[in-house]
Specification:
single chain; five-stranded mixed sheet
């Protein structure tokens, strides 16, 4: 906590240097923007964020620079989002569950089977309707510049395949702290257990949970493939990460420089999508070497039918979710 506080003081001090507005910025006196996030340096999404920063500096001729603080240096994902809304940091990468605490529409991304495949996901996330949704939170202190894929999420367990919804009955499944995720597992007959990712390995090892749900990279990067040997490819959700920027920061950018940042963000997303696909294939190969079995013969139609009432309920309860679902449907 002391280290984080000292770093925050440093960030605040740095924010006071340089140009105050992009119109006044020069390569000798640039506008310096801080971007804090919780991912490790080698994570594929960290690489995308660095790519974004490099593009901004290059495309602005050095007038705007993005200073990155990775590895949770300034706090957890939730803490950094709070710092952004308080004006301490300028940008952050945050997952949809984190944003759902501020904007209910982000709950939509925890709902199952909204997308047919990776291509329909890409079309929806880059659609005009989704861009409007990302911009709609300006009055809440931030807007989304772009999204980064985090792959398709599936169920994985210590020792049993999940081919049908009935196979989840009675199983304790670790989920993220997101209401739509807990409701999904309950709807399918499982028992959702909310816990941090960092505690999941031990929970799987000791039987506190029977399984979890995530993408394939968790098997290798978090070593879950050492204790969970069955990965059932049902691909129930595709939950994005979002690069957000504080509304006050946008007001310090000219219209041209706002477009510059948006274009740089979109370009970093395109490169990230290809890198993620390669990372996923690498994880699958490594996980097989760890003894993980990938179950492909999953009855996804049964999962879709079982969870359709849940999607309909969220559409009725949350106007923000209904808006996102409309954007996804329009992009099909």
């Amino acid at each position: 906590m002391l280290v984080a506080a000292l770093l925050l003081l440093g960030v605040t001090a740095c924010a006071g240097r340089g140009a105050g507005r992009s119109e006044d910025a020069t390569p000798q006196n640039p506008l310096v923007l801080t971007l804090a996030h919780s991912l490790g340096d080698t994570h594929v999404t960290s690489t995308a964020l660095q790519d974004f920063a490099d593009r901004v500096k290059n495309d602005s001729g050095g007038r705007i620079t993005v200073r990155i603080h990775p590895n949770g240096q300034l706090g957890s994902e939730t803490e950094v989002l709070e710092q952004l809304m308080a004006g301490v940091v300028d940008m952050t990468r945050v997952s949809a569950p984190g944003l759902a605490t501020v904007e209910e529409g982000y709950h939509a991304f925890g709902l199952p089977y909204l997308f047919e495949d990776a291509e329909s996901y890409r079309r929806a996330m880059t659609s005009p309707g989704m861009r409007e949704f990302f911009a709609s939170t300006a009055d809440k202190g931030f807007v989304g510049l772009t999204y980064y894929t985090s792959g398709a999420r599936s169920f994985y367990t210590v020792d049993r395949p999940i081919r049908r919804p009935q196979d989840l009955k009675g199983l304790k499944i670790r989920v993220q702290d997101m209401r739509s995720q807990t409701d999904m597992v309950s709807t399918l007959g499982g028992t959702p257990v909310v816990m941090p990712l960092g505690e999941t390995y031990t929970a799987l090892q000791t039987g506190i949970v029977d399984g979890a749900e995530s993408n394939e990279t968790v098997l290798t990067q978090s070593k879950h493939g050492e204790v969970a040997k069955t990965f059932s490819v049902n691909e129930h959700t595709r939950i994005p990460d979002v690069l957000v920027i504080g509304t006050p920061v946008l007001e310090r950018l000219s219209a041209e420089d706002q477009k510059l940042l948006t274009d740089a963000a979109a370009a970093s997303t395109e490169a990230h999508t290809k890198a993620w696909e390669a990372e996923t294939q690498k994880a699958i190969e490594e996980a097989r070497g760890m003894g993980v079995t990938f179950v492909e013969d999953v009855d996804t139609r049964a999962f879709r039918e079982a969870t359709r009432p849940l999607v309909d309920r969220y559409r009725q309860e949350y106007p923000g979710v209904a808006r996102v679902l409309e954007s996804i449907s329009a992009a099909r």
